[in-house]
Give the backbone structure.
Amino acid sequence: MKKQKEKVIPSYYIPDVGSHVTTIDGKDYLIANDAMFTFYRRTKGEFSPFFLALRDEKRLLGCKCSKCGLVRVPPFLTHCPDCNFAPTELIEVDQVGIMNSTPPITYFATSLFQHMAPYGRGRVIFKGADTAMSINLYTTTGILTPGIIKKGTEVKLVFRDERIGEMRDVFSIPTAELTREQINKKGLQESEIDWETPVEPPLTKASDQDVKVYKEALKEIKSIIHEMNRNERARKDIVGWKRNIQVKTRGGQFAILINDGDIKVEEKKRPSPDFKIVCDDPRTLLDGLAYRGAITDSVINKKLWISKNMEFSTIFKIDRMARSVARSKKA
Amino acid sequence: MSKRVGIVGAGVTPFKAIWREKTYYELAQMATREAVKDANIDIKDVEAAFYGIYNDIFERTAIPEHAIHGLLGMQNKFGIRITTGGATGAYTMSAAHAYLAAGRFKTALVLGVEKATDCFDFLSMSATPEVIKAIGWSGDSFFEQGIGWSASDSYAEVVLGYMDEHPGDLKPEITAQISSQLSQQVKGNKYAQRQFDQVTPEEVMNSRLVVYPFKELEICVYTEGAAALILAEEETAKTISKNNGTPIVWITGVGESNEHSFAGKNQKIMSRIMSDYYGSHRAYEMAGIKDPTKSIDIVELHDAFVHQLEITMAEFGLVPLGRADSLIEDGLMLSGGKYLVNPCGGLIYCGHAVGASNIMSAWSARNELIKRKLKTALVHGTGSTIAQYTACLIFEHE
């Protein structure tokens, strides 16, 4: 059950020892790579039965007040403060519930969760419970977009195949995406669900008009990216960042190359790009680059497809560059 | 009987995205020097220090105030740190007020400082993901940190809860207009991080979604800086005011509230910010304000997010719940409208140097009351998960 060889802090997060000097107004300032780190052998204490039930038995526990009967899930206390600290007892609750309110969706995550974005986190009142449990929310249909899960949406508790006794051992998906058997099954695991595999969207055959549109858009894209490359503020947005991006549109394809402060367009197919952008109409990407709407939103609205969700971070940077150029023009 | 307490000096540093040239030691001293100069007193005349510093991780040290106590000239005197998430600054003012009102001290320094963007994510080669990760350690460590809790997604929960109840309110074109207006107001604040970053409503609408439903230009920006106030009890305040020629701004009301951090029956009501409701109404009661819509001239509101600004204005009783868009639709916060809201540009445009933010807001409210010859201001701080904490203060210009 326990994952092997996984580090508490994955090595890719850890910078090398080092420092550099930044000069501002003719004065030098020393900037050092650094970290605060503390390791723990931390007890789950009174929450241990809850986490052990998740990990080992695929059961969901709450606590019921012996006086008022309020059922709290998760069982975050042992005595009820509403009843002058009357004791509570652990009980099992159902694994289907409803959303307490519409959940937020995180597209730009903290450095710890960028691999997980976009993700939903909301609160579910499971049948038999009175309080709402905070939990991750996903859809089997691709990227989670607003409107799929709302207040009152019925969701199912799903268990990770590998569990370690943490809240990330479980998540929820809408019951509307499951079969009756899956909904009724206690301890449903993620591997028992059909997940839509990200498939590169096919592009329809280009007409002469499409090729013309592509050529005109590419000309503008080149011009904007050239402008980004000359803009100090925009260049700062991609310092230390390297990505080769293949862009496929109906009328043709090209590559955007980002290399530590530099950005350029290349009119050829890259053999092994870091990721692909596919958009039927190149003007979708053009609008984003020209700061007439965010590329991020085009991904969310499915007008533009990226081959790796983790590359939202690169899309954010390109959006940022578009804003930097716009800000410089105003200044 | 408690003593009257007034503000007799204030100062801020420039709020900047990052201060490579200064540590938080120097930022703290810069703001203190300005406040003492403004009050025209010697630091030796200050009897106690109240420090608003939110997050140990930002300052990269536990008890970060220990090092600055002596370098502010406060050695051998009372010093205490307050940390209550985003509401740190407002709670720090509240604490200082209580000590002075009780007669423990005649004068006090209230200092907020934060150095957030030394945090750096070496994977994305940018600061923001690491800054919000550092804040992410503030979430519930047993049930929420591990599943991606962040300040933005927790406030988004509240905003979406409100929108579930009031689907016609907080319309995107209104939140965009408010953000645009704040960007105009910041032009007059020479200390602001984004003094020259004016945006149109269309630009706000077109900015990228960061955490649904928040767009990039509807969110406060993380900032580094410091802000300081000198508070004094009535007699001392009058003497200082006579010497420096600046009118006293009295703190006539203080109110606080911290809600549940779990949701559901008998817990947090997700469609409300009850802490804002209780905090403001307790402050009104203490100040003797019966009808805030008639009394409040200036609101310096902790606008972590534009949507939350609107809900908070409703919880303050300044617009009806479910009709917060009337702030724009009825012109209430438009130029020349009934309320002057965040003349400093708010935390979205002046910047959010967490422990210093609400103290910067107080600095702004005091300046505006004096400059515009208005009577009453409401200063607010919000913080912790799902807008759990609030502290409010009423300022009155004599």
Q: What stands out?
A: Helices of chain A lie at 48-57, 180-184, 208-230, 232-236, 282-289, 295-300, 312-330.
